Every structure is written in C-alpha cells, then in structure tokens.
Amino acid sequence: MKKSLYLIILLVAIQLQVHAQNESMRQIYDQAESEYRLGRLNQAIDLLQTHINNFQGNLKQNVYRLMSLCYLAQDSLRQSEDYAEQLLKENPYYTSVQDPIRFEDIINRLKSGTRATITTASNQAETLDEVPVPVILITQEMIKDIGAKNLLEVLTAYVPGITIIESTTELNFAMRGVYKSGQQSVLIMVDGHRINSYSTHTATPDYSINLEKVKQIEVLRGPASSLYGNVALTGVINIITKDGHDIDGVKMSYGMGNYKQNKANVIFGKHYADFDVTGWASLYTSNGETYFETAEESHGLIPLNGDVILHRFSKKPSIDLGFRFKWNDFYAFYTYQYAKQAPSYSLDVFQAPYSYDKYELFNGQSPGHSHSSHKGELGYQKTFGNLNLKASLCYDADVNNNYDIAGDIIPPVMGFNIEGVDTIIYPTVGCYQIMTWNDYHFEGNISASYNYSINGNKGSILLGGQYEKYELIDNVLNLGWNFNHILWTTNEDNAYMKTGSENGLSSFFQIKQTYKNFIFNVGLRYDRKKRFNNNTKEALSPRLAIIYARNKWNMKFSFNRAFVDASYFMRSNILPTYKGAEDLSPEYMNSFQYTFDYHFNPELNYEVNFFYNDMKDIIYYNSATSAEGNAYSNAGSYKACGIENVLKYQTSSFRGTLNATWQHAISAENYVTTGHRVNNVPKLSYNIILAKRIFERNDHGLWLHANVQGTSEQISYVSAFPGMENDEYIDIPARIIAGCGFDYKWKNLAISANVHNLFNKQYQQGGTSRSPIKQNSRWFLGTITLTL
Question: Looking at the record's lineage, which domain of life comes first (predicted)?
C-alpha cells in the first residue's frame, strides 16, 4: 500500500514539474512575441534562441514561426527560410493564416516546390526529392481547380494510373490495371488512420469523405506493405485534414445542383499555444439521373424495359462528421462516415432495370451497399533530441449492409417452405436479399525513430510494431419478395458467415542513409495473422530504394513487395458460391519502378516514371466449378508495365497540370484481360487541369478553371449465359470529357460554380458490372461559403 502511495505521489510530482516547465516556457514565448510586436527583433530572437531546445509540442512550431518572422522583418531571407523549413519539419502540414504576405509566400513556396514536405512515404517528414517512391501531392487549391465533389474525381484527375471502374453499387477505380468489385487494393487513410473496412478491405471514394476538411492528399504510387502491411498492394492514399490554425474560426457552406443535389458543410477550428482543435460535419444527397433502357439493349438474363439509375445518393444522406485535437504531445481523432449509392441495376447475373422506390426500407436501409463506420484514435508523440517516439490506440466499429435487388421479375430459381403453406413458394416478383453484419477492430501501434549523422552524412532508423484484433460479432441474411415481404431469415445456427475473431502481429524497420548525393532507403515488414479457423498466414514485405539527387534533377530506383489478404467476408462465408474461400492465401505483387524528376525552375517541374508489376496468387472465381470442386482459388496472375508522366507549372496567379499514363498487359492467367489489354481499362489516359487568377484585390478575387479528361478506346467482356453459344466483346470508344468553373471571394463570402461533362458527352464505362453502364451526363453544382 505504501509503495503504491509513493508511486502516485512521484507521478503527481513529475506531472506538476512538467506543467511548471511548460508554463515557464510559455511565458518566455509570450515575452518574445511582445518584443516582436514592439519591433525589438534582436531581443525576441535572443530570448527564443537561448531556450530553443526547451520548447515542446505546439509551442515549438510557434517558436520556429516567430523566429522566421523576426528574421524576415530584418530582411534576412536565408535565415527566415531556414526557420520556416524547421517549422514545416515540425509540422509538415502547417498553413499560413493571417501572417504577413511575405511569410505566406515563403510557406507556400516551400510546400508547393521540391522542398514540399510529406510524411506518408517513410513515416517521417521528408521532401518530395527524398521520398523513395513516386508521389503525387494534391493540395486544397488543386481540389478546387477541378471543382471536385468526391474523392474519386480528385484521384482520377491527378493520379497517373488511376482510372474509373463501374461496379453498379459503389464508386470504384483501377490502379495500374488492378481492380475488384470494390476498391480493396489501395490503402486509404485519414491522418494515418485506416479507412478500409476490416471485413471486406473496401474503402469507397465517395461522399463519406468530406473534401472541405482536406488540407492535402499524399498518394504513394506503387506497393507500400513494407510500412503499412495488408491492403497497401498498389498504392497508399493519406488524406491530411486541416488544423485549427488553418481555419481559425468557422466556415459554413451550402451547395445546390441539378438532379436535386444538396450539399451542406460546416468546419471549425482554433489554435492556441499548446492546443489545436478541428471539427467538421457534412451531408450530401442527390436523386441522380435516370435513362430508359429497352429490352433490346439489355445484356441481362431477363431483358426488360425500364429506367437505369445513375449516381443516386438519397433516402439517407451521405455523412462525414468528426473532430481532431492536439494538446502538447497528445492527440485524439474521431470520425463517423456513411454513404450508400443506389445500384444502377439489379444483381449482375440479371442486370435489369428495377423499381428502386418500390422496395421497402429495412431498418432505415434502402437498396445498395454501405457501412456505417465509427473510427477513433488516441495517440502520444514525443521528441527527445534526435529520438522520436509515437504510440497510438485505435478502435473501429462498423455496421455493414448489403441490400441487393435480384429483380422486379426473375425466373423461379429458388423454392421456400413457408410455415402454414402446403406448397413450395418460388418467388418471382420484387425479389431481394439483405446481408447485415456487425464487427469491430482494435489496434495498438508503437514506433521509434532516431536521426543521426556519420561524417556529415545524415541518416535515420525507424522501428515499429503493431497488434490488432478483429471480431465479427453477428450477421443476418434476409431473403424477400413482393418488394416488402421477408421469406427467410438466418439465425445463429444457420448464419451465412462464421463469427469469430482474428489476431495479427507485425513488426517493421526502415533505414534511411545519405551519402554525398545518394539516399538509400531500405525497409522490411513482417506480418503474422491467426485466422478465425486457427490457421496462420505470414507475409514478408521488403522495400529497397536508391535515390540520386542533384540541384535540378533526381533519379529513383525502387523495388517493393506487397500483399492483400483474402477478406474475412470472403473466407468466412458459407454460401455455396464461396466454396473454397476459407483456405485462400494473400495476393502478392512485386514491383520495380524507375523515376526521373527534372526541375526546370521553381515554377516548372516534369516527372516520368516507369513501372513493372508482377502480381501472383490472384483470387480467381470459377463459376463453372462442379459441386465437388472449389469455386475460389489463388489461380490468377498478371504482369504489366507502363509509363507515367506529370508536368506541373505553378505561379501565384496560375496553376497547370498535365498527366498521361500508358499501360500494357504483358501476360495474364485467370485475370480480366483480352490480349495485352486489361478489360475496362484504357491503355492511354490523360488529364489537363488549368486555373487562372483573373484578379485579386484587398477584399475580393476571382479564379477561373477548366479541365479535360481523356481515355483511349477500351474493351469490355460479357460472358455468355449457360446455353448461349458465344461470349461478347464490347468496344468502348475513346472519349474526352471537359469541365469548368469559377471561384469568387468577397471579404468573408465565397461563391463557386462547377460544371462536369460540359458538352454533355454520352458515353459508357465497364468494370465489375456485367456490361458497360452509361455514365453521368452534364452535372453542375453551385456553392456559397461563409467564413466567420
């Protein structure tokens, strides 16, 4: 008892000592800031310089900012830039707000040029020239330049190799020709917290991710499992949210557009010496557009006339709300996300128009796929000289709902014995199935990095570990007909998914070493998972990168190995169509990349990247398998190469981006290719984005922007139904889609308007749908924003 009491007294004494020291350092900072405001710059610099090693947390970045401002006021530009760089290393996502214009220019120049700093590639702050793999950095200004409504539009505009894929139930994309029914090959994070579902691995780039909260988006192009493990197969997308300092108040917006689009958003933020808080909430709805399809145009099993639904998010709005705060070395993060897109057609095998509004809401859910996701994280990060420690605890809880429509009219393929009815019922009208499951995920992370120097050559070592636990709590399957009548429901004894839990343990290290003009980056991660059936799967993910950097250009060569495990949803499913899935192994990719980057001047930059991907153990579904065989197996492979080009030009009054990608399927087995082309993926894709400031005065300004997105022709494959003679190949013509808009600001009021598919181009896109689906025609959205 006495020992416990002594320990408590000791801990309280330590905490009081730390608090007293923080208060003392804050008083010194406040005094230095007063000296700066009085114009006594040397006194302010001396005060800060004397104690600079004793400042911690948010106060430290404030010190670097004030030092930079002091030197700038003395016209010592070199020293000012040095401390601005220190500020960005302390907080790579710092945004200058209500600072002197010259200081804002320094920050913006450092962040937009080759000295721009990101953290995603190596889990530490580094410039774009230092990152070991090709990276696309998308700023909030670039998002405005295309008038993007959702994350998918941002990625397909700015990231080479990403193209749209149609999947009827959710927004989806391919990365370098790799895609599935949902987006589950690219890891998507918000402030480093995984968004991908732990049951299906999917992360849908839709309206559940509010773009108004985004400061910048860091996209790693290529495998990244050496740091991030599972799912980081073809890339990583890290969405960095705004700090309280970036907002410094409240910003509210409301938008309206055709097809009954409504979009509302509020975001607030505040920053103090050792405390920073941001909160956000957004809603989006649209009735979508419809077009009439005749039975002759249908590729479904039962050709029907009817309306096809495009881009409908209604019944329940898409939601993104959350907050993030930092206090000294502690931080917390929470977000709730929800979105559901109405399926364009009924289930793929039937793929027919259906009567969306006739189907009953069940537990508030309409037809489509969704998951209501709660995500939270608590963390601590502390720097002791050259040593940085970070620890975090994460918790995710999801409610998943797949409400699939079989069709308004289907053949009598399944019979049911109903209590009180002597005959077997074969439902044929208004048929549907609803899968619902609840799960949670817990995760603990710890890492340490140490910076050192050997004979003037800088280096760093990163070590880390992760423990995670996933559990499927329950699941229910309902089969119904007549639009609102449940025929059959599962229970604990006949559930369609096996409940259970899985545990994972991983460790990783990374060494980064400079030698003259060379940078060597070596990393390795080991993942071990104990599955719900007590089987164990292991994966090793190495990375090797060599960078040769000069003043105006650099070259990078990298090798990465990555994996994505078969999802719990697939492996635990006992429905006959998933036979064999329980024993599936992860899919693997080996990737080689060579990147050349040339800086013509601070405004103009060109990058070309060559990649070669070798993907193995692709999960393959064989619909023709006999009753004794397995429907699923790791029987697929895919080899591809490509060239990605990015040309950027940016000044204070103009921004221009051109990117173009060519990709080629070398060989494939049991994968979605026809010859040397990936089905539904163009060999050539390109984007041109231009934004021009027309004028800017003290209280108002106007920007105009335009963009063009083009693809070469594509091929889409439609398999024959049993009894039909031949499969069908559909040629999708090349296309060019244009958009434009403006952003006008007057004092604290802003007005924007954007048009997508300006010339109302009629076109189709294929993917995991049975056949290509018509895409959106001309859509427009106007928004008014008030800042307080």
Answer: Bacteria
